[in-house]
Amino acid sequence: MINQYLEEQASLHVLGALNEMESRDFKGKLHEDADLQEFIARLSTATEAIAGAICRVDPPPSLRSKILVSVENRKGN
Amino acid sequence: MHRRWLGRLVFCPNNVNESANQDTDDELLRQIADGNRAAFAGFYDRYAPLMFSVATKILNDSGEAEDVLQETFVQIWNKAATFDPHLGKASSWAAILTRNKAIDRIRAAQRRSRLEESAGREFAIRSEVNETVNELVYGHDKAKFIHQAICGLPLEQRQAIELSYFSGLTQDEIAKKLNEPLGTIKARVRRGLLKLRDRLES
């Protein structure tokens, strides 16, 4: 059972709005609570909608190769 | 078309992009974690528009948005293994990483006025559906449905959510800006997100 306080913290968590200490505390609870994990997963539908409802601005085509090259020398195949 | 997700009936338009995303995002991130650059390029092609749109919205500067996009993708390359599909979608994860990088950039520059400027551009989400990221991902009909769901929220809840996500202001700062108690702001965020979630699942 998730109480109202945890629902509030979860809501702020999915928006990235918890401060560092609150976030650390919340993540600790999240790690141990399957109900809270499911609650977060369902809330992500709402946050995805919020993020995607803004005007679309595509990055310049040149940025793609720049970013791909930036990981070229890192681990990988 | 409807499908079940977590036991609930969820509206899914017959949109190839959405079906493909849901089925392969987890696999893409697993491959990225293994150092697969082709998977990384695929993830870029899928989510760069969303991420760049979020960065541009927050920073209001395309040059800085480009820097943030690059930093975020490097972060994704390094931390793909930390993505937990049980906690939400890859798109939400990518968007929040971008959002946090953009907010950090503003704060690091200590451009308080920029935060307030960003906060002043209230109702980040336009009232009309016109070339949004959701249209790219879901198609016109579902994007319109999502917009109606968001615009159907009480104004104070929508405002609290948008300020929390896009402005970079802390909850205390939002409460001060709106001249409301902190508890009221947090309650509005909670109620608004729950209402939006329920509407989207209906």
Count the beta strands of chain A: 0
Give the overall shape of chain A.
Answer: elongated
Name of the CATH first level of the largest domain in chain B: Mainly Alpha
Order of helices and strands of chain B: EEHHHHHHHHHH
The N- and C-terminal alpha carbons of chain A lie at a distance of: 45 Å
Radius of gyration of chain A: 18 Å
Radius of gyration of chain B: 17 Å
Task: Please name the fourth-level CATH homologous superfamily of the largest domain in chain B.
Answer: RNA polymerase sigma factor, region 2, helix turn helix motif
Outline the low-pLDDT stretches of chain A: none
Total beta-strand segments of chain B: 2
Q: For the report, how would you describe the main beta sheet of chain B? A: 2 strands, antiparallel
Tally of DSSP helical segments of chain A? 4
Helix content of chain B: over 70%
Distance between the termini of chain B: 13 Å
Spans where pLDDT lies below 50 across 5 or more residues of chain B:
1-17
Alpha-beta classification of chain B: mainly alpha
And the CATH topology of the largest domain in chain B?
A: Rna Polymerase Sigma Factor, Chain: A
Question: How confident is the prediction overall: mean pLDDT of chain B?
Answer: 84
Shape field of chain B: globular
How many distinct folded domains of chain B? 2
- What level of helicity do the residues of chain A show? 55-70%
